[in-house]
Amino acid sequence: MTRKQYFIIILILGALSTISPFSIDMYLPAFPAIAEDLDTSISKIQLSLTAYLVGISVGQLLYGPLLDRFGRKYPLYAGLGVYILASVACAFTTSADTLILMRFLQALGGCAGMVAAQALVRDLFPTSETAKVFSWLILVIAVSPMIAPTVGGYVTAAFGWHAVFLALAAITFLILFGIYYALPEGKLADPSMSLMPKPVLSNFWKVLRNPQFIIFTLVGGIASAAPFAYIAGSPDVFMNVYGVSEQEYGWIFAFLAFAMIASPQLNHILLRKLRSQQIINLALVYQLAIGAVMVFGVYSGIFGKNSLIAVIFLFLIGQGLVAPNASALSLAPFRKYAGSASALTGSFRMGIGAIVSGVVSVFHNGTALPMVSVMAACTVIGIFIFYMGRTSANAYTRAEVAGLQEEL
User: Fold this and answer.
1) Which fold has domain 1-189?
2) Residue 142 pLDDT grade (very low, low, confident, very high; cuts 50, 70, 90)
3) CATH 1.20.1250.20 spans which residues of the chain?
4) pTM higher than 0.70 for the full model?
5) Can you list the alpha helix ranges (DSSP code H) found in 160-300?
6) Taking a C-beta distance cutoff of 8 angstroms, is the pair 86, 135 a contact?
7) What SUPFAM superfamilies does the annotation carry (predicted)?
8) pLDDT tens, 91-124?
9) CA quadruple 370, 371, 373, 375: dihedral positive or negative?
10) Could you count the other beta carbons within 10 Å of the beta carbon of residue 304?
């Protein structure tokens, strides 16, 4: 693979990975305008976001078997086609209920990109390179929250909220064009893979019974769910508890998102000296210490706004070290069932993220304590699972180094 091909593939896979983050964040500034135009409440419009998250979680489980059966590109074409049509339908809807339904369909189509991008990393790059490639994808995804709301705000102000969904459709069409002309095929279609419920569930079971997959999917999914707690709680914490304006909150959000951009670069450096499992260990211990400081500072009342921002920034740096390495190790044992493995990983992460967001809301008490406590708890649970499963993980890692891992 030439340097140019490597760059183009990373660019396309990164674009595929950002479809859903952009779909989630880009229309947030348009909530008031959508609610007014559709003659409903903002809380009703928020259900369209919930519908999208549910669609992502469900859709990933559907695309795993499809990607294994038909290869990578045909399910991508179908899924992104559904996404484009649903985006256009969102732009021209005249009721909140229709918007909610179309957002669900939009997610079902768009999540094809998330699953396929992970599977294609496993297809196109050697195992020794996958952690580095996942770091690049995490970097691209991390930039999305800094760009999408700002772009969405300008588009809404200039052209109205309808244009946001038309812009999403146009961007995805360009990605589809790039996939057709520049992205390698990856794993080809496998007619032996059945789409009947029993064989599909059997394939999922073959993935789930692999100890390495279970350990690192759980560790990566739970430990990496902390940002969902931050996203759910930070608007109330900063705008209501600390009284910042919407504009200032946007800058705070962008600054903290930068932590997720910087850490993948650190991961690239660490991978030259350490294995992925060692980096996860170091990152979780680091986050455990920062999380303890964060909870103590909020509970004791010694943290002000700037102190809290600083400690959250330090905490989020660890996310860019855990997530890519956990993804690489969870998918490493698979080739034939890489699509199913990617689907299970993505579905679990979105599902646990939704639960974490809900927990923050349930324990809302007008302070930052629920948010930071849930963030710290994610790390505590993640590190517990990591150490409990370390024996099995070490066995699989030794097999990987020897080149003897099972290629399912």
Assistant:
1) Growth Hormone; Chain: A; (1.20.1250)
2) low
3) 1-189, 196-408
4) no
5) 162-182, 197-208, 211-223, 226-235, 246-270, 276-300
6) no
7) MFS general substrate transporter
8) 999 999 999 999 999 999 998 888 888 788 878 8
9) positive
10) 10
